[in-house]
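ok posting inputs for the adenosine-5'-triphosphate job
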Amino acid sequence: MTRLGSLIEELDVEVGENAGLDTSVTGFAIDNRKVAPGTVFGAFQGLRVNGEDYIPDAVKAGAVAVVASPQAKVEGAIHIAHPNPRRLFALLAARYFAPFPDVTVAVTGTNGKTSTVELARQLWRMLGHKSASIGTLGVTTSVDQVSTGLTTPDIVTFLSNMSGLKREGITHAAFEASSHGLAQYRTEGLPVMAGAFTNLSRDHLDYHGDMDSYFEAKMRLFDEIVASDGAAVVWADDLWSDKVIERVTKRGLRLLSVGVKGQALRLANRTPTQLGQTMDVEADGKAYKVNLPLIGAYQAANALTAAGLVIATGGDTGKVLELLSRVQPVRGRLERAVISRAGAPVYVDYAHTPDGLRAAMEALRPHTRGRLIALFGAGGDRDAGKRPQMGKVATELADHVIVTDDNPRSEDPSAIRAAVMAGAPGAEEIGGRRAAIAAAIAQAGSDDIVLLAGKGHEQGQIIGDRVLPFDDVAVARECAG
Ligand SMILES: CC(=O)N[C@H]1[C@@H](OP(=O)(O)OP(=O)(O)OC[C@H]2O[C@@H](n3ccc(=O)[nH]c3=O)[C@H](O)[C@@H]2O)O[C@H](CO)[C@@H](O)[C@@H]1O[C@H](C)C(=O)N[C@@H](C)C(=O)N[C@H](CCC(=O)O)C(=O)O
Ligand SMILES: Nc1ncnc2c1ncn2[C@@H]1O[C@H](COP(=O)(O)OP(=O)(O)OP(=O)(O)O)[C@@H](O)[C@H]1O
Ligand SMILES: N[C@H](CCC[C@H](N)C(=O)O)C(=O)O
Ligand SMILES: [Mg+2]
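and the output
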């Protein structure tokens, strides 16, 4: 049985007099609909509603304590007051859900988080550890994959998943720290031994406002979440890398920089091969030849960042680099779905930002003898400013562009397409993703390559409130058959 007092011990919190610290706690919730007798309820100001409005309902449902701002009105339960209630809630919940896997690392960045945590999981597994990842693909172990619906789940789901992994015997876990997740304290409280930065480019400005605030949200990982004796693995070749390195150094974290400008793992040379690429990597004064069975500069970057995390947490450099030759592709990241009847390979990729589209097209270009045909859309209820920029990048780098739909959500699909088209002169507009994929495949000749971007592993098209089953890989196979 866990007593509230033992969770609060040593934390800098205010509770009222006669606070009943002897009360036993049976769980944590941030949604009043999930409160049961004995729950600690976290009441937070959100974007849509104020969680404090649900305090009476939470108390009625049996909440014994409420973590909320000092101004909140709490009656009938203990008010644990704090100016940053989300953070305090995370700390308390982590004490309740502990223990966690021994080695935990986190990855942030606009693109590459899913790929990096997945590759780190695979490398650990090949080194003989029981490993897991948590992110866009869900909670993944070598035997299971369970979706959580978000990249970075809410704090209660996150900590209970981490705790469940520990009970299953998982010793090593890598998780994605999205900027929303970082800004909302959805992944903290547990010791994080290393953090990685992949890159920063335009996305989610609807939420963060501008690039500097978006950057600051990401930096919480290094400023506050990674343990003070932990490590930072920084992809060194991004425009923002130097700023990240500055922050990491200021905090006193052990720095492993990775990439062409990297020092811990220096990418000296990279040569595409038919099915992958070879990399010349220098580390600790030694030269290593790495055969990576994945194509594209971006996958090389993510593979090296993942290797950096595994090395930072105790992996042997030579062994880890050698194991990169045995990694499996990541679902929906330059996944070859099918070869069309005409002989054109059709790739599915999760590129959903201007930079992601550029990375995916640059990855495929060296493998394209004829034309590169790129199809994509932009998500509704998401950063609208990225739409024309995605159109622009695509028309610059592809030989033919098809603009279609990708999760319009509450927006009018044709208005989203129009915004993309505004930056994409000469592109073809086809509403309805299935019809667009069929058209892309039908016009590809044997020397051409088709890129279906934006949905990757996703299993649905979100239209209004409905999620209609949709899988780019499956649809590509149907259209090619
Ligand atoms: C914009 C955003 O991130 N919103 C998330 C956030 O909402 P919020 O804190 O603003 O919450 P709110 O809905 O205003 O509610 C405020 C509080 O009242 C509580 N509440 C609310 C209603 C009620 O009846 N009872 C109740 O107790 C809520 O639990 C919450 O604590 O917290 C909610 C609870 O955890 C999330 O479900 C919600 O995700 C929404 C659905 C979402 O679409 N999020 C996306 C944008 C997102 O987070 N994406 C990122 C990044 C994607 C990437 O990888 O690029 C991700 O990590 O997935
Ligand atoms: N290192 C990288 N540099 C540039 N682009 C990348 C990089 N890694 C991945 N991408 C592009 O971004 C897409 C998404 O990759 P991934 O799912 O690994 O990123 P993510 O950060 O997890 O995305 P999300 O924020 O949606 O969870 C890829 O399909 C690819 O097009
Ligand atoms: N996790 C990201 C990527 C979504 C990819 C794309 N399919 C879209 O719906 O915009 C988001 O929620 O912004
Ligand atoms: Mg992801």
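notes: Residues 97-322 form a domain with the UDP-N-acetylmuramoyl-L-alanine:D-glutamate ligase fold (CATH 3.40.1190.10). Residues 151, 352, 379, 382, 406-407, 454-455, 458 surround 2,6-diaminopimelic acid (ligand 3) (CB under 6 Å).
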